[in-house]
Specification:
mainly beta; 8-stranded antiparallel barrel; two-stranded antiparallel sheet; 1 helix; 1% helix
């Protein structure tokens, strides 16, 4: 905005004596940014986050978990390893969806995952020896705190209020509980055959005996149903593949506490599960 300032001088009778005109002055109006409702500028970024595009929710997810050796024998070719079946688990927690576009969201949350599996390791050489494991059957009862991050994609809403979705991502699990049921057949220090058993025994050996941190790939699909403008129910089927590190390292178990002598290995074991997830989004 440009403006000029003029000064007029008069004498006692009111006659104009002088007229002075100052140079034009340029002024810039102060503009206050106006943000749409729900938008807040984020420092050091050129975009905004709309808090109305964040949805929180809760879920429960019964699952079937299992441990799968990636090879039929351990690395030293001393034990034959195999999966002895699944076990039922349970997962529950909180979730948050940020819909940066109408049909695309970043998904995160926090959950408690009760999981595990059954593994058998049988010595290839069954001849008697000193402090030697012949066969070990272990059922693992594990619990992790899971922190996921995923990309979620969904279809447009139809007249029946259904929207189908799919998502893929990664999660990091932190182990908070590790217990085992076991039966171990072994030869003692006199080469005599013995058996040790236990139920829901807490493992207290090396930190890495059970993976303290578990990285998983997650993939799932399902549908959402709008109950009203603010509440949605959803149902989905998910597969979680623990790809790193090895789920178990039984050669690091405290075998003295478990009541047997000798060590064994179960190869490179992965922890996986299938989950049926039911939830509400607010």
């Amino acid at each position: 905005m440009v403006s000029a300032q003029t000064q007029i001088s008069t004498d006692s009778s009111g006659r104009i004596i002088t007229i002075k005109t100052a140079a034009p002055v340029t002024t810039t109006p102060i503009l206050t940014p106006v943000y749409p409702p729900g938008y807040y500028p984020r420092r050091f970024h050129h975009y905004w986050i709309n808090i109305y595009k964040v949805r929180f929710g809760v879920f429960i997810a019964p699952d079937i978990s299992y441990m799968k050796p990636t090879a039929t024998m351990d690395d030293r070719q001393e034990f034959k390893t195999e999966n002895k079946g699944p076990r039922l688990g349970f997962n529950y927690g909180l979730m948050a969806d940020y819909w940066f576009e109408d049909n695309y969201a970043l998904v995160s949350g926090l959950s408690i995952n009760t999981t595990g599996g059954k593994i058998n390791a049988t010595a290839i050489d069954q001849t008697p020896g000193v402090d030697k494991v012949k066969q070990a059957d272990f059922t693992y009862h594990l619990q992790y705190i899971d922190l996921p991050i995923a990309l979620k994609m969904r279809t447009d809403s139809n007249r029946n209020k259904f929207r189908f979705f799919g998502q893929i991502g990664l999660s990091v699990g932190v182990n908070i509980s590790k217990k085992v049921d076991y039966e171990v057949a072994y030869y003692d220090d006199n080469s005599m055959s013995q058996t040790a058993t236990g139920t829901k025994i807490k493992l207290n050996g090396a930190l890495s005996e059970i993976a303290p941190i578990m990285f998983q790939m997650n993939i799932g699909a399902g549908f959402e149903y709008s109950l009203n403008d603010k509440l949605k129910a959803y149902l989905g089927v998910f597969f979680n593949n623990g790809f790193f590190p090895d789920a178990t390292k039984p050669d690091q178990f405290d075998n003295t506490k478990l009541g047997y002598v000798g060590t064994f290995r179960d190869g490179t074991t992965r922890l996986n599960n299938f989950a049926l997830r039911l939830g509400l989004l607010f």
